[in-house]
Amino acid sequence: MRESLQKFGGFLAGMVIPNIAAIICWGLITAFFIPTGWVPDENLAKLVGPMIQYLLPILIGFAGGRLVYGLRGGVIGATATMGVIVGSDIPMFLGAMVMGPFGGWVIKKCDAMIEHKIPTGFEMLVNNFSAGILGMILVILAYNIIGPVVAGIATLLGSAAKVIAEAKLLPLLALLIEPGKVLFLNNAINHGVFSPIGIAEVKEFGQSIFFLLETNPGPGLGLLLAYWVFGKGLGKQSAPGAIIIHFFGGIHEIYFPYVLMNPLCIIGVIAGGMAADLTFLLFNAGLVATPSPGSIFALLAMTPKGGLIGVLAGIIVGTVVSFLVSSIFVRAYSGNVDEQGGADLISARQLVQAMKPAKAGEQVQQSANSQTLATKEAGLVKKIVFACEAGMGSSVMAVSVLKKKLAQAGKKEIEVVHSPVNQIPQDADIVLTAAGLVESARKVAAPGTRVYGVQDFINTPVYDEVIKQC
């Protein structure tokens, strides 16, 4: 069940995350130039409407089609999305998340049907016209049928979200959000569910609280502070570094092992999340776009004019409540841990890596003495790729760590990049990824590419082994 939810949520997030930059761009233009913005400009504010009505849905539709069938699927997905956009007067994010993948799937099936049946010399003619004709059919279908249906569903969801917010029930969502994050459903919750609702709200109200519910770093910060103050052993020693990565870097996955090694601490982060959400409601706080990653810097950048106090108040309240509640469980847990203890945290980190989304049967192939899973003999290394689920979280942090290590070894010429696991560049010589994603990475990477599973992206012996091969 968890794997199915992760897979579905990861697919939804895969349509949104590659377009976060465009969403942030639109959010900044909105925050600065609308009549209630930081520097109102009537002329530049004209950009806001077309970007949310056309640009963002088409980008999402393209990403959805591309996930299913590469560039050709992306083109048909974007084309089909245009039907639901024109067929409705509301931003068609949900419609794009339907028509994008559907368009990619249809052209994929069509190509499979006519493969090997095209006369020599007619390939380009058939490929272009088959895609064009299918695109036309999909646009008409989307315009007349799917668009109105999705518009009705979107309106219903928006009304439900508005009712929940007005009834002050949003804090209860923390009961689902915080455990969901620890189960690696964070991207699915934020980008697959809250982002489309939030973007639609921004068009109507200029901001949305839904951008704050999952991204607020306060609850995680409170938990880590509790370990720093009351913890023992490796948990206490590693907490300060984790705080920096979590709060300033926005990598929330860093605090998941601290919950898993002492599961009662989930009560602390839930309490912190509920308190923060209630505070956001009381202050009528919201953001103009989704902050990604969930760093304090990103949240502040996406805060509309006049909204800083409410956003900061929610973060502070969430931190304090999470710290106070988590401290109870951390102190009780630390009573059974000596100052040198750390086995539980190491085990929890390994569990976190194993819980990262992977297809059924693709779970970790771990070795007791090594974290490596090399697929061929070492050769000349020009490019190393870090791959994670979205290509924007832990992999970005890991790239920075390995670049420093390579520089210290005098090997600055080696290119190190990050990528989603389903888009690993084919010219990669070495791929590093979470242990739970190894099999997925091996299927996407070019044949013969060396693929390594990593348990800890910050400090792993795999880095030393890779550097020796460079």
Task: Walk me through the topology.
Layout: H1 2-16, H2 20-33, H3 48-86, H4 93-114, H5 123-166, H6 174-182, H7 186-205, H8 210-213, H9 218-230, H10 233-248, H11 256-260, H12 265-282, H13 296-301, H14 308-334, H15 343-355, E1 383-388, H16 394-408, E2 415-420, E3 430-434, H17 438-444, E4 450-454, H18 461-469
Parallel strand pairs: 1-2, 1-3, 3-4
Q: What proportion strand?
A: under 5%
Total of helices: 18
Number of domains: 3
By secondary-structure content and strand pairing, the structural class works out as mainly alpha
Specify the biggest β-sheet: 4 strands, parallel
Percentage of residues assigned to helices: 55-70%
Q: Looking at the structure, what is the overall shape?
A: globular
Distance between the termini: 41 Å
Question: Taking all residues together, what is the mean pLDDT?
Answer: 81
- As residue ranges, the low-confidence spans are 359-377
One letter per element, helices H and strands E, the order comes to: HHHHHHHHHHHHHHHEHEEHEH
Strand order of the largest sheet: 2-1-3-4
Number of strands: 4
The Rg value, from CA coordinates, equals: 23 Å
Commentary on this structure:
This protein is mainly alpha-helical and 470 residues long. It folds into 3 domains: 41-167, no CATH class; 185-355, no CATH class; 383-469, 3-Layer(aba) Sandwich (Rossmann fold). Helices cover 63% and strands 5% of the residues. Strands 2-1-3-4 form a 4-stranded parallel sheet, with helices on both faces. Strand 1, helix 16 and strand 2 (415-420) form a beta-alpha-beta unit. The protein is globular. Mean pLDDT is 81; it is low at 359-377. It is an enzyme of class 2 (transferase). It catalyses: D-mannitol(out) + N(pros)-phospho-L-histidyl-[protein] = D-mannitol 1-phosphate(in) + L-histidyl-[protein].
